[in-house]
Design brief:
Length: 165
């Protein structure tokens, strides 16, 4: 039985997030966590001759969430332009995992047609020294421009059962 080498896990701090608005790119160094999810919707399929229902995939939704330090103006500025002018900006998010210590090395994800679904416009908090904010997004499409390399498992077992140390 194979197992993953500890060094082949992906380090969460090695990478970058870039936010693209039109032709302008912004390094989103203030983000401390971002997750993009693919949600696959299914329809139930009633069937004659069985008590169980089948399932058929129908559509997919791409959503994301982020947490970061409060204070970056880019998204607030773009959302204010939208609210005041009515034209939603063309936005992308580029999330790159890059851990040189692992065999997997790098993945570059590009989220396209990004829409912000909630955003903090202003914040104060007397109980904290570092303000943070959360925001959620939806995406129209995505591309994995560079994908992880497959890792080669370590052979054997990391600890043999019953072995005396």
């Amino acid at each position: 039985m194979g197992f993953i080498k500890g060094r082949d896990t992906i380090r969460g701090t090695d990478g970058s997030i870039t936010w693209k608005v039109g032709d302008n790119e912004y390094d989103f160094f203030h983000i401390t966590q971002m997750t993009i999810n693919l949600e696959i919707d299914q329809d139930e399929v009633p069937r004659i001759g069985t008590r169980t229902k089948g399932h058929k995939t129908s559509t997919v939704s791409i959503t994301g969430s982020a947490t970061g330090y409060y204070g970056d103006p880019v998204i607030r500025r773009e959302m204010t332009k939208y609210v005041k002018g009515g034209a939603y900006p063309d936005m992308q998010v580029i999330l790159t995992n890059k851990d040189p210590d692992t065999q997997a090395i790098t993945q570059t994800f590009i989220g396209k047609g990004v829409m912000v679904t909630n955003l903090v416009l202003a914040e104060l908090d007397a109980n904290t020294t570092m303000l943070e904010e959360d925001f959620d997004i939806t995406l129209e499409d995505y591309e994995i421009k560079e994908e992880f390399q497959e890792t080669i498992p370590e052979e054997g077992s990391p600890v043999e059962i019953g072995a005396i140390a």
